[in-house]
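Quick one: sequence plus flavin-adenine dinucleotide SMILES, need structure tokens.
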Amino acid sequence: WLNGNTDWDPVWRSPEPANNYDVIIIGAGGHGLATAYHLAKYYKLGRIAVLDKGWLGGGNTGRNTTIVRSDYFYKESADFYDHSLHLYAGLSKELNFNIMYSARGILNLAHSRHEVDFQRRIVNAMRLNGIDAELLGRDEVFKFCPILNADPNARFPIYGAMRQKRGGTVRHDAVAWGYARAADALGVDILQNTEVTGFRRDPNGSLLGVETCRGFIGARKVGIATAGHSSVVAQMAGFRLPVTSYGLQAFVSEPVKPVLNTVIGSAVIGSYCSQSDKGGIVCGGGIDPFPSFAQRGSAAIMEKVLAGIIQLVPTFSSLRLLRQWSGIVDYTADSSPIIDRSPVQGIYLNVGWGGGGFKAIPAGGEAFAHLIAKDEPHPLAKAFVLQRFRDGALIDEAAAAGIEH
Ligand SMILES: Cc1cc2nc3c(=O)[nH]c(=O)nc-3n(C[C@H](O)[C@H](O)[C@H](O)COP(=O)(O)OP(=O)(O)OC[C@H]3O[C@@H](n4cnc5c(N)ncnc54)[C@H](O)[C@@H]3O)c2cc1C
Ligand SMILES: CSCC(=O)[O-]
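Reply:
Sure thing.
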């Protein structure tokens, strides 16, 4: 149906596993699929397979709140995420698939003059890094987003906001589907329902391939892009990672007419939301305060996040909640990712994105493919290495990495 013929034409194949590949990527989320696409298109690295224990895009890439932005504090992060945002702007054309990038802006609200002072410092730091951040005064905020609570006596009155105009939203499923279709068309085998259960190495410790629920599959290079399960997969290969997995929830209301023209969030309140193209108000907040591999979440977080949303937009109190879900996010100590070789020769890592890796998928795929193909870090990812946790060269983006993360 994609190519105009009448009988059903799959958007991607469902091949049987080959006996071996040149590269196996574990995890058919956005990062894994984007990596395979880059390896096939730009490095022509022979036989490539992406394995997923479930369905492609069924992990965090299909469960997130679709925000993209690059308003990070440190230069290493700003350069990386801004490159990703620029890639997103051209991705529909690159993949010939409408990923619905909407540069509707993102507002980080300030609720005191002290917060405004703090945001002024952050905006200046971002502008020094070339990021289009700006500081809005109170009146400018309500002119840009009229539905916000303008009551000066509110529990959290709005004093101003930090805005990034190029921030906004992207349709998350479309990112996974677009990369999957393009990678498949380049000959990448996407093996869904193929759980990796272990690694096989020869007596000298050299990597031979992966054990899966569909048998052994050989490969000399394996990339791990399994987000919340990255520590589980790393343990199969015999090493530990400095990541902890938590549940991160999201919520969507019943669909309503267009009322919210941008992304709004408040670090102090711990809630953020935007309106999806289907009309639902998509809400998110902080992680569940305990490590977990359960893709559900606690009611306490739901109550806290939704109470915060109603603070920001009181009229949303009349909305009915349609659905709640959760993903498992892998957090590092500094809320920055790990794109690096692992301690095991031939195994590579693209993990640690926590609650903020959707915006990084295009650049993450490019950087991870570069690392696997050339066995050296991508220029934009040189700082995101494991060694930083030993020598303390952390890139602490906990504040910029989203709400209460
Ligand atoms: C509720 C929520 C809201 C979020 N909101 C945003 C946002 O607005 N903006 C943003 O930038 N980021 C956001 N994030 C974070 C973002 O979604 C993730 O960082 C990003 O999607 C990670 O992509 P990935 O490809 O690394 O992981 P995933 O998409 O999770 O893919 C990993 C895949 O690995 C597979 N896998 C795991 N173990 C195995 C195994 N043993 N064998 C085979 N396959 C395996 C899984 O099935 C999964 O499909 C949010 C996350 C959540 C949960
Ligand atoms: C989960 S918060 C999303 C983000 O990083 O903007």
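The chain has a mean pLDDT of 95. Residues 26-32, 51-54, 58-61, 63-67, 195-196, 225-227, 229, 233, 248-250, 284, 327, 329, 353, 355-359 surround flavin-adenine dinucleotide (ligand 1) (CB under 6 Å).
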